[in-house]
Design goal:
Length: 340
Amino acid sequence: MSLIYSLKKNKQGVTHVIGDYLGEMRPFAKRVKNPLLVAPMVLLKTIEWSIYRWYKTPIRRFYGVKGNELIYMITNACNDRCPKCGIWERPEPRDQHLMITHFIKCLNRLHHNLYQVTLTGGEPLLFKKDVMLIAEEAKKLDVPMVIVSNARFLDEEFLTRYKELGHILVISVDSVEREKWNEFRGKKNFDIVMPKIMLAKQILGDQLRIQSVLSKESAEEIPKVIEWCKQQGIQHNTQFNQDFGGHWNNHETTEKVNYDNDTPCAARKNICVYPNGDVVKCFDHRRIPLAKQPLGNIGKQDIIEILSTKRSTEISKIMKTCNLPCKNMSCNKPQTLLFN
Ligand SMILES: C[S@@+](CC[C@H](N)C(=O)[O-])C[C@H]1O[C@@H](n2cnc3c(N)ncnc32)[C@H](O)[C@@H]1O
Ligand code: SF4
Ligand code: SF4
């Protein structure tokens, strides 16, 4: 692995230390739900920060207790053909698909650090058995789980067990009208998938969420989706259109980062795994020169070893001040800002 590591970047002045402190405390304070607990929790976190500021091992310094999200893009393959998304055009060859045992091991190694494990793709439910294995393991390890899905392969048995496990399902919906739906999915499956969403609502209740992508193409549809979600009592989140290799045009708001620039991108606390087991810090890592190469591969190395490298630590530091449009992606935002 080539490590382009600059020693100069490690020399830190007072401004850097203050920036480092605020970068850690602001998102932490936002995660504390009870306002009365904010001050004492920040005080305790400050003590922890001070200790690890001067005495630190990378894994403890950057990967605090329940401080991270593990995001697994379980496959690139998909049963839909959404024009906004180009992921489905590059399914991984069978022999490059990570064996599920490697991911389960990774989850076990990291679970003390995780506030959430998220499964996305491609379409995760193409690997429904593996998804359920992860859901069961996450429950055992007390890690909340989120699946982002197009809902095509949902069924009663899966939903019933998923409900019992207490995890969250996010279904992607960009229109609630048949014609637009079929256009946006690249497959005429409105009449198959809509009843599955209603079944998911019936079984999962408030463990179901809906997410839409806002672009010029979908701008007229999204308010209707939001209204429909309100009527159904389903929490909704809008994600701005990004470059997923698809063909939708950016909405004018896409390039604006819609919260203060001082808040570090929450993605710096993410650990992302590609379908072949490669590990990166955010799925937009190619925008950061030092992060272009994956940090390692969980099929070949232990995840803690991967995350403890000098380069991984250095990339986390760079990500604190990274302020690109991808900061707006749902998976790269503090969880407190999502879904209403
Ligand atoms: C890539 S999909 C994978 C999971 C699943 N196949 C689905 O569609 O929900 C994950 C999320 O990214 C969203 N997405 C797809 N293309 C996008 C784009 N160009 N910009 C932003 N989000 C996008 C999807 O709508 C979905 O909510
Ligand atoms: S957005 Fe999801 S459902 Fe649509 S093609 Fe991409 S991966 Fe498949
Ligand atoms: S702004 Fe984008 S590239 Fe930078 S850390 Fe966040 S997700 Fe990664």
